[in-house]
Prior knowledge:
InterPro entries: DUF4440, NTF2-like_dom_sf, Steroid_delta5-4_isomerase
Order of helices and strands: HHEEHEEEEEH
Domain DUF4440: 8-122
Pfam family, one: DUF4440
Oligomer: single chain
Protein name: SgcJ/EcaC family oxidoreductase
CATH architecture: Roll
Amino acid sequence: MTERQNEVLAVLSRLTDAWNAGDAAAYGRLFTEDADYVTFFGMNMPGRAIIESAHKSLFEGPMKGSKLVPGSGEPKVRFIRPDVAIVVSGGGSSLSGGGKPEPGRESTLTYVLVEESDGWRVASFQNTRVSDPSARAS
């Protein structure tokens, strides 16, 4: 892993720490002002203020006490420019605080990060639930 890749992954680690602490303000600060946050069910939350507000509601309500946990495999970090990185990783959440995503809560996560004057920020995020399309065909 290069130093630049580690800088980018450190942002994702801080996202996890903020989520696991239920700290919506810290979570929101890791996004750009005009970020897009696409949830696992396809809703887009545009902008840092909306991302923070929505997560405050989640952390005080249905996701209170939940933990983000890594999925299988290592995150893939790719720089499309020196100041723009795309990360694809696995992960999910645990409502019981366990160390692995609970059934039905495993996702493939895609992040676009940009380097700003004060460090790396998430400009776009998409959470896509992992599913088996062949299971639906039967």
